[in-house]
Amino acid sequence: MVWLAPILAVLLTMAVGAAVFSLLGYDGIEAAREIFVEPLIDVGGWQDLGVKAAPLIMIAVGLSIGFRAGVWNIGAEGQYILGGLAGTAVALATWHLSGGVWVLPAMCLAGIVGGAAWAAIPAFLKTRFNVNEILSSLMLTYVAVQLLYYLMNGPWKDPEGFNFPQTRLFNDFQMLPYFSGVGYLNVPLSFVIALGVWFVMAKTLFGYQVRVVGQAPLAARYGGFSSRRTVWLTLLAGAGLAGLAGIFEAAGPFGQMVPQFPTGYGFTAIIVAFLGRLHPLGIVLAGIILAVTYVGGESAQASLGLPASATGVFQAMMLFFLLATDILVAYRIRLGGRAGAVS
After folding, report:
1. Angstrom distance (rounded) from CA 200 to CA 183
2. pLDDT band at 340 (very low <50, low <70, confident <90, very high)
3. What whole-number distance in Å separates Cα of residue 70 and Cα of residue 85?
4. pLDDT tens-digit series, residues 165-175
5. Which pLDDT belongs to residue 343?
6. Which residues on neighbouring strands pair with residue 179, listed in sequence order?
């Protein structure tokens, strides 16, 4: 049931979602088919699935590291934004150069550092003052959004952008390589990163330490594993991957930094992590499923007139049913009368 429950959650989401939208006056069955089935059978649209799935996989894989240690980083959206901003700072600083193979790697490194630096704040508050990392990381997301708006409307606004709040377009040497039929480089890299995290978590001492701290804190303390060090390492690792996903999006599909950069990937990645059972390879499949809802939701808006919020409704129901079906993991349902008392 550990692995069957997510499948059941997806099926229940499709069924209940179809019923809900039918009651609202839409063709609910066609809506569920358009959102969950059509993107999978449309081979020509698989590239779009990869573009949507890549950041979800990268962020969710990073979050799963902390979640397995009992460190609840809910601010990946802010770390994603800060990673994009940090990489954009390098791009703007090198914009007048004629080229340089080192620029894109420097942007990616800045993205990792930017995301990790943003997570260092809740890590410090957690280990020094025992501040709940759920609240601190979540609230910092809104600080990151306001910082983004300030930069887009002020210091980083494109002087030749007709007063639109956006940065300059990145130069060709600052953009991710694009491969026809695959998408940007971040698509295959997301699968490589998932495999790498699986190896670290399953085959290294660090992965063992994370699992022990999360499952048996007293045993971890007896074994000499520092919970404070685990909090720092897991938060920085997860936020670094979120920041890397951020600069990959800025240097890929966006091609610049814009106020619309926050897309909710950091929050959706939480659903991806739990749908994938916090296992990197399971997260790959979950990331594809959530990417299907994004692509299918956009298609359903155009073909069926569904509201833009339909995608979020289906994603929320998926998380709800995942949590609901988890009862089947912990308990066995028995049908029948009450057992007689033993005298």
Report:
1. 27
2. low
3. 28
4. 999 999 999 99
5. 47
6. 183
pLDDT single digits (tens) 146-170: 999 999 999 999 999 889 999 999 9
60: number of CA atoms within 13 Å, CB side? 36
User: Which CATH fold topology does 4-330 show?
Assistant: ABC transporter involved in vitamin B12 uptake, BtuC (1.10.3470)
Give the pLDDT confidence score for residue 326 in this predicted structure. Answer: 87
**Distance in angstroms (rounded) separating the CA atoms of residues 272 and 74:** 13
279 is written with which tokens?
């296992």
Report the amino acid identity of residue 179. F
**Nearest-angstrom CA–CA distance, 174 and 87:** 10
How many CB atoms lie under 10 A from the CB of residue 327? Answer: 11
| Joined tokens for residue 86 | 């940090």
Calculate ∠ Cα 264-289-199, nearest 5°: 90
Distance (Å, rounded) from C-alpha 168 to C-alpha 158? Answer: 5
Q: Which residue's structure tokens are 């979950």?
A: 286
Residue 339's pLDDT band, with cuts at 50, 70 and 90, is: low
pLDDT score, position 231: 96
- In DSSP notation, 133-171 reads HHHHHHHHHHHHHHHHHHHHHTTT--TTSTT-S--PPPP
Count of other CB atoms within 10 angstroms of residue 146: 9
Q: What is the pTM of this model?
A: 0.94
CA-CA-CA-CA torsion sign (290, 247, 123, 283)? positive
Domain boundaries, the chain: 4-330
Dihedral sign computed on CA atoms, order 109, 114, 116, 117: positive
